[in-house]
Amino acid sequence: MGLEEIYTELVSEHSRNPEHRHPLPGATCSLKGHNPSCGDEITLQLKVKDGVVEDAAFTGVGCAISQASTDMMVDLIRGKRVEEARALAQKFIGMIKGEITDEAELEDLDEALALKGVSHMPARVKCAVLAWHTLDEALKDEK
């Protein structure tokens, strides 16, 4: 199985069975993200305590790319300090926009690296970055 197939499988799995798509009891922060061009809509819920994203989840609807991207993001940011989570969001957005291409620099995106190919599909870029923009916005005021 080649790298492309593995990536496609990862995206499929995360979009079909998103582990983190559910309401989050005790969320300290909730922000809705909307992509008017395709109708994707998520509500990201975070539980932030002492500068750490203790837990996260999302609800909403969208295409396979937006759902998979959101689920992978939640996997990645749980347990991270707010600054780390925001840095990962900036790195992911940079990757999708084609501004960061160095594989070594992108390694800490883990499974979200599977979405790198989206950078070559301009119509899907907004789908991939929706959750990450929402995360960055939600954490802007968290200390």
Plain-language structure description:
Residues 7-126 form the NIF system FeS cluster assembly NifU N-terminal domain. It comes from Selenomonas bovis. The mean pLDDT is 92. This protein is of the alpha+beta class. Helix 1 packs across helix 2 (64-77) and helix 3 packs antiparallel against helix 5 (125-139). It is globular and about 40 Å long. The chain has helices at 3-16, 64-77, 82-96, 103-106, 125-139; strands at residues 29-35, 40-49, 52-61. The protein is built from five helices and three strands. The protein has a three-stranded antiparallel beta sheet, with helices on one face. The protein has one domain: Sufe protein. Chain: A. A hairpin with a 2-residue loop joins strand 2 and strand 3. Helices cover 43% and strands 19% of the residues.
Give a quick rundown of the structure:
The protein is α+β, with helices and mostly antiparallel strands and 143 residues long. Helices cover 43% and strands 19% of the residues.
